[in-house]
Design goal:
Chain A has about 500 residues and is mainly α. Chain A has a domain of about 220 residues. Chain A is about 75% helix and about 0% strand. Chain B has a single domain, classed as Helix Hairpins (Orthogonal Bundle). Chain B contains five helices and no strands. Classes of the chains: A mainly alpha (about 500), B mainly alpha (about 120).
Chain lengths: ~500, ~120
Amino acid sequence: MNLVQNFPFFCIMLYLAGGVTCCVLTPKASRAVCIGLNLLVTALMAAALAFTVRSGESYVYLMGHFPAPWGNEIRIGPLETLMGTAFPLVMTLTLLGGMDHIFEDVEEDKINLYFTVVNLLMVSMLALVLTNDIFTGYVFVEINTIASCALVMLKYKSGKALVATTRYLIMSLLGSGLFLIGIIILYNITGHLLMEPMREKIHELYLSGNYAFPLTVTVGLFAVGLSLKSALWPFSAWLPDAHASATAASSGILSGLVIKSYMILLLKIFYRVLGMEVVLSTGVLNVLFVFGIGAMLFGSLHALQERDIKRMLAYSSVAQAGYIFAGFGLGTAEGVLAGCIQILVHAVTKPMLFSAAGGFMTVSGGSRQFSDLHGAGRRDILSGIAFTVGALSMIGIPLFAGFATKLVLTRASLATAGWKCVAALSAIVLSTVLNALYYIPAVALLFDKREAVHISGVKAQPSAVYVLSLTVFMALNFFVGLRSSLLTCILEAGLNVFS
Amino acid sequence: MGSNLFFNYFEATAVIVFGIGFTILFLDRNLIKKVIGFNFMDSAIFLFLASNGYISGRVSPIFEDGVTAAEHYINPVPAGLVLTGIVVSVSVTAFLLALVVRLYLRYHTLEMDEIVALSRKEADE
């Protein structure tokens, strides 16, 4: 076995070790450990990505030397490694962008715990992306739940954050309860927990027609459980509060990464556990598609009414998550490809917007209301530019990342026949208009010359890491926008060997 | 269908209890009751698993008297899953209760509606 093939496993273990270490370190040391680890993992996963892209195949890595169907496994292919590279990279940049706020918003003796939680979150997200065992998936779903709730809660003396955490946790627990009972029913009728043997059994059952009813129920349980956790409209009522009341870095992490890890898990279950044949026969994809379209429109409509910049961005996340589910719901390979591209596009854009929003708050007396943000982009010019880039990307202007999604999703919907094609195309058009309707006025307001009296004259003094973070984010945005064909190639290769 | 329901009475009970727990966690306004509902939900899943793992007439999977035939023992995997599930459920319960304590110290109530109303008012001030 090649040394590179061990890297993904090392990454999971490194984060676990980092999480344990951070809780006994000083705030600054834990920050260094956390950022260093994220950079190291990005490099390791990039090496694994290069390896899998070159070989064009996926491989299974045994965890603990028990061969299938008994042992535990992780599975590594181009899709998994691409996500595994993007996640720690975005995590590093988000943390750097929100670092000043972390040190202000979190109690001083809890800052090292913040980094502990970040490490644990990365463990769970990497494991969700890589795992080949469905029960391991469940365990990491729960770790992910606790860690992401802790990220919202770790804000100094904020009652709103506490309430938002409670609601978030309760909705997440409902989701993971449904997910768990789905796993157990599936284990009951197949007798396996590893994805490959499970799928063979399910295929047999599907052909023989036995256990058709439990199978349909589990497909529904997985879909509802995981869409609750990934904030698919209409299950997204918890998201705006949770994402808006957290500190800037947490908001970016939750919107940009956490909800994506559940979507990848759902994709994994559809492709690798149930098999697309079974999923298509139940019609659950149509439901996800309709909800995705609903999210694209209603998320934007809610964002349009919002007078609070972070809540507006959070509602925009609901809308953007809708694109992913609309892509998955098309039920074609192109649709899934569009969903995966949107995962990456949103991951490089939304954390940048949240970081910039954090910058505006600093120069506007800590307020998130648009009424206090007049001219904030002029007071903090770098955040202003970054927010504009992010806004244009979310609208889907060519050159920017968001355009890649719209292009691939439109192509995918044109290739689909029937009502889905019409529905998807009209939703894309409407949603683009709606996105423009709230992002353009926001940008205009941020560069407004009339400033509120009590905060005019404040100038931003961005720290070096903040400048670095936003610059790299903008560069990534242009990279994804201009070289989306590269990503499409990797993702296509990944999806080919995915099932 | 009906005969299956009687035959699988453990599973049927488990699903009913799961439903009760799910409803309490989702709809009840009292936070402590929500925590209890969550534990109902997870216990139902453990009952489901444990009843699957048990095969009447066989013994627990520990070698005794040198019998190595698999037919002599029950399947140990569901028991392992139950254990893992209990660990997860305990830690989530602890986290949830810690949150409830923080909320109670701040708002002096356990009703979710009142807490939400109070936190809104707090932000307005």
